[in-house]
Amino acid sequence: MADLTTSSNSYVPSSRAGSRRSADRFHYWLSWAIPALIFVLWEIAARLGWLTPQVLPAPSSVAATAWNLARNGDLFVHLGVSLLRAMTGFLIGSAIGLVLGVLAGFSRLAQALIDRPIQMVRAIPFLAMLPLVIVWFGVGEVAKIFLVALAVLFPIYINTMLGIRQIDSKLMELARVIGMKWPAVVRRIILPGAMPAILTGVRYALAHAWLALVIAETLATTQGIGFLAMDAREFLQTNVILLTMIIYAIIGVAADALVRSLEARFLSWHANYTKAEKS
């Protein structure tokens, strides 16, 4: 009787876990089925003549353009330059935003000194800032990296500060009562507690980095995905323009998947973190 009870109790959780895994797989493939269906309908509409090549060329035409650019090496050159700009700007902006966010999160005085100016600069549209950036840095690589770093700084700063401020005060009181030293408090309470907000900031920062890069690559340049799109616009090459948009989308999905993998590593302990969020 005891064995039967034990086996039945162990069976229920395992069956629930199996059904949850099945639901996760279904949702994962469903999330990819919708974009695939859009591409199929797009191809059919283009082949039936409902869409003209000048307005919206077929996905097969865009794929052929990508193959031609990849075969002569131009695509990889432009992609590599854009990735290097985005990565450099992201690292600089996230480092500055993290430091400022930590300072503002820990100190009311630091927040009073730096938060208002940051919020004022954040409210300025990028296109309005572009002439001043050109005056400061010219139209070289420094200006492009500066714009990307500036776009990344704001979401990292805001989410880091809020993540630190939202840590449960009871945990801090408990650490004080048991005599936990400050490095241990930071390592065991503050960083884990702020990590969900910080990773949310990283996710937003990656999206902002690519938006800023598109604007930055409209400056005088001869390399980059943005340059490829601007050059194609001059010659009405819609297939190349669509290719650059698809590249941005693929990079965005890959960057988001990277952040999700970081969440899987650092937030597996979190009560609200489930496998459904990772799919």
Architecture blueprint of SSEs:
Blueprint: H1 2-47, H2 59-71, H3 74-106, H4 108-122, H5 126-137, H6 141-165, H7 169-177, H8 182-216, H9 225-234, H10 238-266, H11 275-278
Helix pairs in contact: 2-10, 3-4, 3-6, 3-8, 3-9, 5-6, 6-8, 8-10, 9-10
Walkthrough of the structure:
The radius of gyration is 24 Å and the shape is flat. It is mostly helical and 279 residues long. It is 83% helix and 0% strand. The protein is built from 11 helices and no strands. Mean pLDDT is 81; it is low at 1-12 and 275-279. The chain folds into 2 domains: 1-51; 57-278, MetI-like fold (Orthogonal Bundle).
Structural class: mainly alpha
Helix content: over 70%
Taken in chain order, the helices and strands follow as: HHHHHHHHHHH
The largest pleated sheet is described as: none
Gyration radius over CA: 24 Å
Q: Provide the CATH topology of the largest domain.
A: MetI-like fold
Top keywords for this entry?
279 residues, mainly alpha, MetI-like fold, 2 domains, 11 helices, 83% helix, disordered N terminus
Question: What is shown here, in short?
Answer:
This protein is an all-alpha fold and 279 residues long. Helix content is 83%, strand content 0%.
